[in-house]
Design brief:
Distance between the termini: 37 Å
Radius of gyration: 24 Å
Number of helices: 25
Largest sheet: 3 strands, mixed
Number of strands: 5
Strand content: under 5%
Length: about 625
């Protein structure tokens, strides 16, 4: 396979097309199945006891009839939810790769009202289980016993729900509210093109291809792409700013009515992370920012941006390949690197790469109308769909490792029920970061001698670019999003104000490492991570640092770690962050844990500085 012939995924084994009889039948059946599930909930009176405001009746004893009701509705919810998830993934496989596909967009819009009827049932189940002592319910229901972790989360969630009618109304209105605005952001950004001044002439290219040029080895190409972005993004700033305002405004209202004291508290709960754990992580991150700025300054010097022996990095060189390396990676080479590192950990993990390639799980080609960035979504059985925008760089190889890590995680969840595999994002990043780390560490071990200094520097460069994005850039995103939520409580925010807030947040996070005159004011517009109801960004930092902590445990005792790793992954939707950490004797509430993970990155920064100054 050449780079002109990058892979596209195939989903035809599920349905031949959106016009296929099997798909149309599945659409019709989905609506009927949800209606039957609603009737089942009604039959068993699955709803909270009458309450006024936040007052609830006392918990009641669970009877055998309650156990039978729990068995029926939990099994029913899992079955219908799994069927709906597969149908949704099938439709999104077309929407995400071609936002101009009118038939796929129509199918997705038809599916949304069905999904909006399912989500209130989870609220009803939460209210119902909150009326029991869960241990008593589990004693009379095998399904409750199997789902004790997820039901405990629902039990806690019940205190942060509106009334049943309000939750149902919100679920319906979100299709024409935040859901529609989020769709607008995805569609309008995926269909944008830009004129790029390149060394061999101007070209008009899809915006995702333009953004991929940030990793081009030619500095003129990187600068041309950056300049093109800053011309293109303002042409769509008004509608996307409207989307941001609508989504965050809605989130503020709903969070208030659900009795959350802040959007962050809602986000922490959704991610099964305690405030103590989050604060410990953030404190360690704050202490690490000078080290990342030291890395950026070393990278600036390597690229010739010296200022009195110091140097600051322009935005267009943040993810540039080290100038000591060609930076080019073919499609055949990228998965081969990933396969080698994965295989050294286990045959199952290594074999997953071959499955993903041979069974057409991957869509790698950047093209007009395709969603930017990368993602992995669970599909049929233990199979996933992996979207990439392959740019032929070492960074693309790391991204491939990351997304295939998610795919491996999905294989460990295949036998779990829909309720058991509702992964909070912070814990969903565990396998992906661990797999990225496997690739980096394998490369560093292979390139240990002085004769490999050039290649080692190039690998460290790619790794630290990723760490810088996940720690420093995510810090800027968290700062920005916190301010958006706060200001949106008072008024609507203009595009220019959002740009100003974005550059202020970047200045706070990047500090002296970045040439602030080149900061990117439109990062708020192009990142889909902002277009949700609560903080979507900080869990990436959690995933990186928790993954590094897990890798340290792996190095200490590889066989013991391997024996428990798949089980840990399979429980990510059932246990809290603190419980998962404790399974490997990690105390994630202790700042020392996060500092130790960041020390791994600090050591790599030290190595990078030494090598970079040698090659200046």
């Amino acid at each position: 396979m050449t780079d002109i012939d990058l892979p596209r995924w195939s989903v035809s084994d599920v349905h031949e097309s959106l016009d296929a009889r099997s798909f149309l039948d599945a659409q019709e059946q989905a609506g009927a199945e949800v209606d039957r599930l609603i009737a089942l909930f009604d039959e068993h009176a699955i709803r909270g006891a009458s309450r006024h405001g936040d007052d609830r009746t006392e918990q009641r004893s669970a009877t055998s009839a309650d156990g039978a009701a729990a068995d029926a509705v939990i099994a029913g919810f899992n079955r219908v939810s799994a069927e709906l998830d597969l149908l949704g993934a099938y439709v999104y496989s077309s929407v995400s790769t071609d936002s101009r596909n009118a038939a796929a967009q129509a199918a997705m819009s038809e599916l949304e009202p069905v999904e909006s009827k399912l989500s209130p049932l989870l609220s009803r189940l939460a209210d119902w289980v909150a009326s029991f002592d869960l241990d008593e319910l589990a004693a009379v229901s095998s399904e409750a016993a199997e789902h004790l972790g997820p039901l405990q989360r629902l039990h806690e969630r019940a205190t942060h729900q509106m009334s049943e009618s309000e939750e149902h109304l919100f679920a319906e209105l979100s299709n024409t509210g935040s859901g529609a605005w989020g769709r607008l952001q995805r569609e309008i950004t995926s269909q944008l093109s830009a004129d790029v001044d390149l060394p061999d002439g101007s070209q008009r290219l899809p915006i995702n291809a333009v953004r991929g040029m940030a990793t081009d080895p030619d500095a003129a190409v990187r600068r041309g792409a950056y300049d093109a972005e800053l011309v293109a993004w303002p042409t769509i700033e008004v509608p996307v700013a409207a989307a941001m305002n609508a989504i965050k405004g809605e989130a503020n209202v709903v969070n208030r009515r659900r009795n959350w004291t802040s959007p962050l508290d809602a986000s922490l709960f959704a991610n099964s992370v305690s405030r103590a754990t989050f604060d410990a992580m953030q404190s360690a991150v704050s202490a690490s920012l000078p080290d990342f700025r030291r890395w950026m300054q070393a990278k600036a010097r390597l690229h010739g941006h010296d200022v009195d022996g110091g140097g600051v990095l322009p935005w267009w060189d943040l993810v540039a390949p080290a100038p000591v390396s060609s930076g080019g990676v073919t499609w055949d080479e990228g998965p081969a690197v990933v396969r080698g590192a994965f295989g050294a950990f286990s045959a199952n993990l290594g074999g997953l790469v071959d499955r993903a390639v041979n069974e057409q799980w991957i869509d790698a080609e950047p093209r007009d109308g395709k969603t930017g960035g990368a993602f992995c979504m669970s599909f049929k059985d233990d199979r996933s769909l992996v979207l990439l925008n392959w740019s032929g760089s070492a960074e693309s190889t790391q991204t491939t490792a990351h997304e295939l890590g998610h795919a491996y995680h999905n294989t460990t969840l295949a036998q779990r029920t829909a309720l058991q595999k509702r992964l909070p994002m912070a814990l969903a990043e565990t396998a992906s970061i661990f797999c990225e780390t496997l690739v980096v560490e394998a490369g560093l071990e292979r390139l240990s001698g002085p004769e490999h200094d050039t290649e080692r520097l190039a690998l460290l460069d790619v790794d630290l670019q990723g760490s810088n994005q996940v720690v420093v850039d995510i810090r800027s995103r968290f700062t920005f999003e916190t301010e958006v939520f706060a200001r949106r409580q008072r008024r609507t925010l203009s595009a220019s104000e959002l740009c100003e807030m974005m550059t202020e947040a970047q200045a706070d996070a990047y500090g002296t490492g970045l040439d602030q005159s080149t900061a990117h004011p439109y990062m708020w517009l192009l990142k889909p991570h902002y277009y949700g109801s609560h903080f979507y960004n900080w869990p990436y930092t959690y995933g990186l640092l928790f993954g590094l902590g897990l890798f340290a445990r792996y190095r200490e005792d590889p066989e013991h770690f391997r024996s428990g790793y798949d089980t840990l992954l399979s429980r990510a939707g059932m246990d809290s962050a603190e419980q998962l950490g404790a399974a490997f004797d990690l105390d994630v509430t202790d700042e020392a844990f996060w500092t130790a993970s960041l020390d791994v990155i600090r050591d790599r920064i030290d190595q990078y500085e030494t090598l970079a100054d040698r090659f200046r």
